[in-house]
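A quick aside before the break. I want you to see a complete sequence-to-structure record at least once, exactly as it would be stored in a machine-readable document. Don't worry about memorizing anything.
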Amino acid sequence: MFLTYLLRELSNRRKQTVIVAAGLALAIALVIVVSGVAAGVRNAQSSVLESIYGVGTDVTITQIAEPGTGGPGQQFAFGSGDGTTTDDGSTEVAQSTLSAARGTATFDSSALTTVEGVDGVSAATATLSLQNSSFSGTLPDFSPGGAGGAGADGATGDGTDSGTEAAPPSGGADGAGGSAFDVDQFSVTGLDPATDAVGPLSSASLVDGRSFTAADAGTDVVVLDQTYATSAELAVGDTLAIGGTDFTVVGIVASTSSDAATASDTYVPLDTAQALSGLTDQISNVYVTASSASGVNALKTDLQAALPDATVNTQSDLASSVSGSLSTASDLIGKLGTWLSVVVLAAAFLIAILFTVSGVSRRTREFGTLKAIGWSNSRITRQVAGESLVTGLLGGVVGVAVGLIGVLVVNIVAPTLSAAATTDAAGPGADGPGAAAGGGGFGQQIAQATTDVALNVPVTVPVVLLAVGLAVAGGLLAGAVGGWRASRLRPAEALRSVA
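That is the input. The structure line, written in tokens, reads:
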């Protein structure tokens, strides 16, 4: 009897049923699309961060450099005996320096031991971020009498030891009576060659050669990022000068993220990097994998307590460092998408309630007759609620279908978002990936990983269940209000009314 009556009433009031179901379907579809796009944006942010910090890195630990710290930047000093003098009296010089990036801070490597002793840490590794700068070129003999030494502070002028004041060079940078020089820089990351489960190389795939082994500790071997290797025309077996020492290229790696560079141009054993840079027992970063994904926030708190002077960040904290149109999309979804979903959902619920109450008002004689033949208030309420529930379910099914179609369209179109994760680095604009990614002058931010990310919208079972649940909730809410209104009708008044 219940189902027969319910289906007959829905069939007789097809217009109302369609309008209510359509309103709920629109709201549900929007919820699915917005939730999916938000999840896709989060996944895209994670993929960009993984290209820098490594797959599975839940927490990163650094220290903020105080203003004025981090060294004076890259300096080159040449004495009177340095370089090779040519026939015209000019001097050909070359020098390479390896130091911590300007604006970054290093701290004692004992912090890694402290981190490993904190409960909830599954794995941890430390790295040292450095910048290699090379100066090479020709400096003219511009001192009086031609006996002065040539100097350079980033270019020229500092580091002379001739005892006489040098006159400024004349001419241009093409060597015609002046100076001609090149300054090249690339990033260097020192890491533990025995650890690959966490850290920058955990997100890299081997392209050629081999990766590090425990036996590489203390040796002069280097693994190159594929983008840098291509620009520098280097291959496995070649040599690369780092800090004035020749390193043998043993491998080339690429980021697992599409079109993205890895965290650094070059990778060397940590102890070798510390020795060459003079930063013995110093590190720049600690990368941590948590034992449980649900315990990341608690682990962050514990690590901050264990290292009060350090800066502890989780993946969600670091997501704010992702810039470009991906960041804009994230802000749009976070600020507009969620509120739009809430407003549309509230409007759909209101429409369902209003139409249900309106339908109850038009069925006054019907409900009065049912009461007169013995229907109780609760039975009438259940009848109206059942009709609204079925309408809500219809809207939910249609909404899920429309939402899935919307997600499919987004995935087919695959809108491309630009993304860059930035860190502070030093040095003048360099040739190579670092410069191409946005490098600039001293102290500027340099994007270490820049990529175009194709937005992929995932659909999960919880989101679909949430959508159906919202549709059911909307139907029940409308049915509850309409049923309550119907139960308040008195039979005598109902029978006197005109439908």
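Two observations worth writing down. Residues 147-177, 423-448 have pLDDT under 50 and may be disordered. The CA atoms of residues 36 and 459 lie 6 Å apart. We'll return to this after the break.
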